[in-house]
Sequence to fold (228 residues):
Amino acid sequence: DIQMTQSPSSLSASVGDRVTITCRASQSISSCLNWYQQKPGKAPKLLIYAASNFQSGVPSRFSGTGSGTDFTLTISSLQPEDFATYYCQQTFTSPFTFGPGTKVDIK
Amino acid sequence: QVQLVQSGSELKKPGASVKVSCRASGYIFSTYAMNWVRQAPGQGLEYMGWINTNTGNPTYAQGFTGRFVFSLDTSVSTAYLQIDSLEAEDTAVYYCARSTVVREVAHFGYWGQGTLVTVSS
Fold:
């Protein structure tokens, strides 16, 4: 199975900060990488698919880059509603493994 | 609009079985695969596997073989997750999620609201 890692595991940031989360795959996954946001008690929400494509309705402050094994999710200017946990997921090959998550909280 | 509506919370004793449902609406059920994801309390997302809604063929991730069964009732556009011989470690929220494939890359754009299964004596 492909293993996914994320860094950092958590971070504290202020409204307006630029935030970058990194995801790494244990082998090349081309661009088969998705990013989800999850708030407490809620289902995950798709933000970015295929490494860099916006899901409909997602604010443009979210962006994704990368291919192969290394990927990043960037929030250009953190907003109060962005405090959540973020997960990457590879869909290059089943099982479609998730990263362990990055919790973004308020500094 | 696409909706996935899951059945309500369950409290079960160890050794019992549970069947979680995921009713789909707003699209043709058999044209998109259905996935299952587990989230234990305070933990991350764990991919359990998927079921081909056209053929009914399930695929299970490692660690979810044997006691876990994915099934369908296409007449009511519903996917099911059954867990047998429940253990305390099965306590979790279980999500169904619909796959969409764009340019050969799958993603999960639609999720059910989650079903909490609690296993306790």
